[in-house]
Design a protein that fits this description.
This protein is mainly alpha-helical. The protein is about 60% helix and about 5% strand. Strands 2-1-3 form a three-stranded mixed β-sheet, with no helix packed on it. The longest helix is centred in the last third of the chain and has 35 residues. The chain is extended, with a radius of gyration of 48 Å.
Length: about 425
């Protein structure tokens, strides 16, 4: 019995040892390969911890922001002047209010208001030294360039002159047709607000083209329209299209005809489009001699009247015509007809311009009776100081030119005497102090 009981005890010890081993193995397997249910529970616990940490961080930040009270509302006032009744209009722009939660005990709101903008001190009147001049006139006022420019223009006008008697060789057109065409071209330039130089250039292109080509009367308006189209592309910054010039002719011609005539005119003129006109020389004389605007516009009016009559004024050079226009304008305004300074600048004396001034004066007399009124209406506007409306034709006689010639000769003699005396004084001073 004792022996058996001892054996049973030994077996029980072995069984207990095996059970402990099995238990430890199961624990290791469970630790190495956890079940899915336990894993999901642990992940959900971690996510809950993350959200709890974020909420705690928000609470900490909110508790720290409670000590800072932000501005609730701000206003910006902008004042604008009314030019009509000089009353100040207050235009207020209020920004959106930004509210934050604060403690009930610290329910205090503050406002931050900007001061209104101060009025800028603007000049009441325009300064007297600012004049409305074009870029061409501003460039001509440069002393270093003006005489070189004048010399070049005097040489260029000799190279691009139309034939003075070309109308006599035209079989189908005459001087009256050309006058009607020029009057219509003046109206077109005013309609499209083109520069005066564009008008002078277009008429110069027409005269030069007709000097070499015979044109039937049905195509004369096409030549004038195409010449304006070429001059506008040469002179204007934003020239009208070919369709615009077709429209102004009441659809008499097509765009294809205008473009074909453009090719023909450019071929006949050899693409020589840079030709000086009477307007160019009037602007140059005005810049050099500091001529007032009234004299300048009146001289331009006389020169444009000369464009109507080709038989009389085509034999004269543009520089000669501009000098005569300035002289007649000065005489109209009560100034002396010519001066020694103008004689030196233009290269023409009183004797040279005498016949042309008389012809311009006669053209001014005829302007009141002719049917072509486009030039007169153009210079009746305030843009040109109404020079054609307030200046009546004057009477010129040979005595007027003789008097001016005598005064200029006397001034010339006095200037020569002063120059001679100055040279003698300098020579004596150099001999005494050497």
């Amino acid at each position: 019995m004792a022996t058996l009981s001892q054996n049973e005890q030994n077996m029980n010890v072995l069984r207990a040892t095996d059970f402990n081993k099995d238990t430890r193995m199961e624990d290791k397997m469970q630790h190495s390969f956890p079940e899915k249910e336990n894993t999901d529970g642990k992940q959900s616990t971690r996510v809950d911890n993350v959200f709890k940490g974020r909420e705690n961080l928000k609470n900490i930040l909110r508790s720290k922001c409670e000590n800072v009270v932000p501005p609730v509302q701000s206003q910006i006032a902008i004042y604008q002047d009314d030019a009509d009744d000089d009353e100040e209009a207050d235009v207020s722009i209020k920004s959106a209010s930004v509210s934050m939660e604060v403690n009930e005990s610290a329910n205090v709101s503050t406002t931050n208001t900007r001061n209104p903008l101060q009025e800028l001190p603007l000049p009441i009147t325009k300064p007297e030294n600012i004049s409305m001049i074009t870029d061409r006139e501003r460039f001509l006022q440069i002393y270093e360039y003006r005489y070189d420019i004048l010399k070049y223009l005097l040489e260029a006008e000799q190279r691009s002159r139309p034939k003075s008697n070309y109308l006599q060789k035209q079989p189908d057109i005459n001087s009256h047709m050309r006058t009607v065409l020029v009057d219509w071209m003046v109206e077109v330039c005013e309609e499209y607000k083109l520069d005066p130089e564009t008008l002078y250039l277009s008429i110069s292109y027409v005269d030069r083209f007709l000097s070499y080509m015979s044109v039937v009367r049905g195509k004369l308006q096409l030549v004038g329209t195409t010449a304006m189209y070429i001059a506008a592309k040469y002179e204007e910054i934003y020239p009208p299209d070919a369709a615009d010039f077709v429209y102004i002719t009441d659809e008499t011609y097509t765009t294809k005809q205008v473009l074909r005539m453009e090719q023909l005119i450019l071929k006949v003129l050899s693409f020589d489009l840079s030709t000086p006109t009477a307007y160019t020389f009037v602007c140059l004389y005005a810049a050099i001699e500091d001529i007032p605007d009234t004299v300048k516009y009146l001289a331009m009016f006389f020169c444009e009247l000369a464009l109507l009559d080709a038989d009389i004024f085509l034999p004269f050079l543009p520089s000669h015509l501009a000098a005569a226009g300035v002289a007649l304008a000065r005489f109209h305004l009560g100034e002396r007809l010519w001066s020694r300074s103008l004689s030196n600048t233009t290269g023409y004396n009183v004797t040279n311009i005498r016949d042309l001034v008389c012809l311009l004066n006669k053209a001014h007399h005829r302007s009141a009776s002719i049917k072509q009124k486009a030039i007169v209406d153009k210079y009746r506007s305030s843009k040109y100081l109404c020079v054609s409306d307030c200046r009546e034709p004057v009477c010129l006689s040979a005595a007027d030119f003789d008097t001016v010639a005598q005064e200029i000769a006397r001034e010339h003699e006095e200037a020569v005497d002063r120059e001679t005396n100055e040279n003698v004084r300098k020579m004596i001073s150099s001999l005494l102090f050497e």
